[in-house]
Amino acid sequence: KGLKEPTEVAAVFKSLPTGSFTTFSYIRSLDRIDSVEELPIEIHTANAPLLRVILDKTLESSAIKECQKLIGLLREKDPFADLGQYELLVECISLNEIAVNDFFLLTSEQKQVFDDTKFKLLEFCRQSTLPGNRMVSIAAQLAIYTQFNDQDLMSYLAENKKPVEKMTFRGIEELLRCLDRKAASEYRNSLHSMSDMDLSKLITQPNQEECNGILISEFCSRRNTKLINQTLSELLSLGKTPDNLGYFCMLAAHASSIISKEDFPLQSIKKIFDEDFSKLRVHSTFIAPISMALAKGGYKELALITFNHTFEGKTPWLSEMYVSYLGLLYENAQYHDFNTRLSFLTSSEKEHPEIINLETCIANGE
Question: Closest Cα to residue 73, out of 114, 32, 39, 101?
Answer without folding.
Answer: 39
